[in-house]
């Protein structure tokens, strides 16, 4: 099945202002705080001076790192030295760019989402010396809560709501910002922080281009063709030199010569934003610490941080082996990127490159169907290239080949049967069937997975299942809003109908906001309208994200 791009006609000149980022030269990658501050960084995070490890990663040095480290070396051995006081004297927290949000009387979910576009909006960044923040040239929407920067794949699902709510200019700015980062650094990092540069996230840039092209026309593809090509080269770096059975970075070559992708990180040290947690995990693992840290970082690149999908024993973080796994969703996303490049080159008159990428997309599609399809169970699974076996975890990633038009019609029908029998829950679809305490496992459901399931089943002629998932998720989100007056990043979809339970698990508390939940809810409400509840008058006002 060939992916079909839905396009309209674009008036000349509409995209001209977006191109300014392409003039930027490739920028050297700044070092993360954990490298710049070395022993000081480790001491602060291990002492748990801040409840959230991300707080110090985002802190802004008040003088040059060299000066701070000189002071630290001189003072740390003194009898009256107090680490917390030293940090307070040498670092400051970023100015909170939040807007206090007070719920309005009679407010509906739609009202809340529209108001939150303003609350979560950030203006173009001004560079702060020595900050871990990577500046962006245009306004942007942050997820909310502890997440005060943009995140890669979150952005696509946030853009859905912006487009739905008449905020197309901000959606275009979001795309421009990501294009800017890809142009500057050769890839889109996990988020716009220096400590995220060693890894990316699910490559949704071509899907974002597709989303805007559906409204603004085919010129969007030509505009962002160089950026999509840069992204592709990043994910495929090292492929040309691989021999069968070898891997390099994000690429693996199977024994038959097939090239597929995995999640990976250029760094093999503890994550800055979860430094102490990673070191504690290493203490319980049989794996070499550097290998474990790379697998943890690769798991974070997946966006599913964390899930039983990445655990060798299916239960325990210390057995994480992300880099051994070829994920079905990542490879479906790469199929879309190759298809989009083929289409864009065709529009640009480069028939040779259009043919090259059409062939690569077709080969990847065939590989996904051959390598990752479980004919016995009737669904898609990840593939462990080391053991040469499908992984046993059933996850919502099985719907992603349907979202990106990778599956055959017969496969789409069988996936629908499996999802309905094993993943469909009272509040939407489960992330996996395993309850491990990780946030990307049962009983949690996440907005992006609901959206891809709904659209995937619509693509494959199962509108009834699509509607069921959409309405169950919408209802779960609405119930939470009626009780609490806010939308959150994830929900407990396994709880009985009528429950408003937010999700739980993972490395941090449940976050309010929330970018991609708002975006998907706005888009689903437009396609599947349901009565909207009003927040209970006794519910607390929304916390400022």
UniProtKB/TrEMBL annotation:
Protein name per its UniProtKB record: Alpha,alpha-trehalase TreF
GO MF term list: alpha,alpha-trehalase activity
Signal peptide as annotated in the record: 1-25
Organism: Acidisoma cellulosilyticum
Gene name of this polypeptide: treF
Gene3D superfamilies, per database record: 1.50.10.10
Keywords: Glycosidase, Hydrolase, Signal
Matches recorded under PROSITE patterns: TREHALASE_1, TREHALASE_2
Superkingdom per UniProt: Bacteria
One of the GO BP terms on file: trehalose catabolic process
């Amino acid at each position: 099945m060939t992916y079909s791009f839905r396009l309209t006609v674009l008036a000349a000149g509409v995209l001209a202002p977006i191109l300014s980022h392409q003039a930027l030269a490739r920028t050297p990658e700044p070092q993360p705080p954990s490298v710049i501050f070395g022993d000081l960084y480790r001491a602060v995070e291990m002492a748990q001076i801040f409840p959230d490890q991300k707080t110090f990663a985002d802190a802004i040095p008040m003088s040059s790192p060299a000066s701070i480290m000189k002071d630290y070396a001189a003072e740390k051995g003194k009898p009256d030295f107090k680490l917390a006081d030293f940090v307070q004297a040498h670092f400051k927290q970023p100015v909170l760019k939040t807007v206090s949000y007070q719920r309005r009387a009679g407010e509906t979910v739609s009202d809340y989402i529209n108001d939150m576009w303003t609350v979560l909006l950030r203006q173009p960044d001004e560079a702060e010396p020595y900050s871990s923040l990577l500046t962006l040239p245009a306004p942007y929407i942050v997820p909310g809560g502890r997440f005060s920067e943009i995140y890669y794949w979150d952005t696509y699902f946030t853009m859905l709501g912006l487009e739905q709510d008449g905020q197309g200019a901000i959606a275009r700015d979001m795309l421009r910002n990501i294009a800017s980062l890809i142009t500057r650094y050769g890839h889109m990092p996990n988020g716009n922080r220096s400590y995220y540069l060693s890894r990316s996230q699910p490559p949704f840039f071509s899907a974002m281009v597709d989303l805007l092209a559906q409204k603004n026309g085919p010129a969007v593809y030509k505009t962002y063709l160089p950026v999509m090509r840069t992204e592709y080269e990043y994910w495929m770096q090292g492929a040309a030199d691989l021999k069968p059975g070898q891997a390099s970075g994000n690429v693996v070559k199977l024994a038959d010569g097939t090239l597929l992708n995995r999640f990976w990180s250029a760094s093999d040290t503890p994550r800055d934003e979860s430094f102490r947690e990673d070191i504690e995990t290493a203490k319980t693992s049989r794996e070499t610490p550097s290998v474990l840290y790379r697998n943890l970082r690769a798991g974070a690149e997946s966006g599913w941080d964390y899930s039983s999908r990445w655990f060798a024993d299916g239960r325990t973080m210390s057995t994480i082996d992300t880099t051994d796994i070829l994920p079905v969703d990542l490879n479906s996303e790469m199929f879309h990127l190759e298809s989009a490049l083929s289409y864009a080159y065709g529009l640009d008159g480069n028939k040779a490159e259009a043919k090259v990428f059409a062939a690569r997309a077709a080969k990847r599609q065939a590989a996904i169907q051959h390598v990752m399809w479980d004919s016995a169970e009737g669904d898609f699974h990840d593939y462990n290239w080391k053991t040469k076996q499908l992984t046993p975890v059933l996850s919502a990633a099985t719907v992603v080949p349907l979202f990106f038009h990778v599956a055959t019609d017969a496969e789409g029908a069988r996936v629908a049967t499996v999802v309905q029998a094993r993943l469909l829950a009272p509040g939407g679809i489960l992330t996996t069937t395993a309850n491990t305490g990780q946030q990307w496992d049962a009983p949690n459901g996440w907005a992006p997975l609901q959206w891809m399931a709904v659209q995937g089943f619509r693509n494959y002629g199962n509108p009834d299942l699509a509607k069921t998932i959409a309405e169950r998720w919408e209802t779960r989100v609405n119930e939470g809003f009626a009780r609490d007056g806010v939308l959150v990043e994830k929900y407990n979809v396994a709880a009985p109908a009528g429950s408003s339970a937010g999700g739980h698990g993972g490395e941090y508390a449940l976050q309010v906001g929330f970018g991609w939940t708002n975006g998907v809810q706005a888009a689903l409400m437009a396609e599947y309208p349901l009565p909207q509840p009003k927040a209970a008058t006794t519910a607390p006002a929304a916390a400022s994200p």
